[in-house]
Amino acid sequence: MFLRRRSWASVISLVILVSIILAACNKEVPTHAEGKATKLETGAVTVYKKKAISKKSKVYYKDRVAVLMYHDLVKGKTTKKALSAEVFKKQMELLKTSGFRVIGMKEYSDFVLKGGKVPDNAVLITFDDGYESFYKLAYPVLKEYGYPATAFLIVRSIDERIGVPKMTWDQMREMQKDGMTFYSHTYDSHAYADVNERGKSKPALTARKYLINKKRQETKEEARQRIIDDLKKAEERLKEELGNTDSILCFPYGAYNDTVMEALKSLDIQISFTIEKGVNSRSDAKGFRINAAKVGMDPETTIGQLKKIKAYTG
């Protein structure tokens, strides 16, 4: 009787052991794309975890830089004058997930002037006018993603606190530590100026102003000297407050002419920016930009423009 009991016990033990072995053999072990499993030792148990497949980012363009143009940001919905901060943040996220590489102004300058290299899908982020929202709304997002950006300042409005709230020099010095850079949008030429007694006006930087007290229009030389004086003062203030050692200009309203370009040459301002749509090659010291703050355009469409960049390159 005793031997019979032991025999039955042995049979039962054998059945249990076989069942365990079969279950283990039938269990699927996940593998990654190359068919190999990754194992994690957790005490007595070995856990197999599938490796993430690394995808190489798609190349939309090479040896080019797309420059995004912004002005003011606002909390809530986009208005005619300001882009929603939430939309801006979504755009920054899409730049990252779509494989775009954000560069700073120094890299861009080296690319244009010194033959420097830029990564595939290179993007430069710019803001015009020096609004306070750059510090309060854009800067935190840029820091989160590790992106540098450039703001173009109407320098007199920073010095004298004119109009819509602008950044302070102290705020700019703080942001410089995180890769933000600041350049000229003129000292005080971001306005329209009368060019005759009837009140016809043109952008001040390209106009020959009507001199009311003299009842005549400026001469070409008077206009040239006024422009030089304005741009020189902006550069002096940027150097005094921020330590700038290079000079870059963003044209107000995107307006420029031969007189303006002569003034830039005399001041050794070698890089400038327009509002003309396009993408920049090494020969484009007068840079194109893409408006990233169009009313009614969703973030996907805005960033989608960059994926079709070859349409601008010819």
TrEMBL record:
Keywords: Coiled coil, Lipoprotein, Signal. GO terms for molecular function: hydrolase activity, acting on carbon-nitrogen (but not peptide) bonds. Residues 121-314 form the NodB homology domain. InterPro entries: Glyco_hydro/deAcase_b/a-brl, NODB_dom, Polysacch_Deacetylase. GO terms for cellular component: extracellular region. Transmembrane segments: none annotated. Residues 217-244 form a coiled coil. It is found in: Secreted. Gene3D superfamilies: Glycoside hydrolase/deacetylase. One of its GO terms (biological process) is carbohydrate metabolic process. PANTHER family: POLY-BETA-1,6-N-ACETYL-D-GLUCOSAMINE N-DEACETYLASE, PTHR34216. This is Biofilm PGA synthesis lipoprotein PgaB. The lineage of its organism: Bacteria, Bacillati, Bacillota, Bacilli, Bacillales.
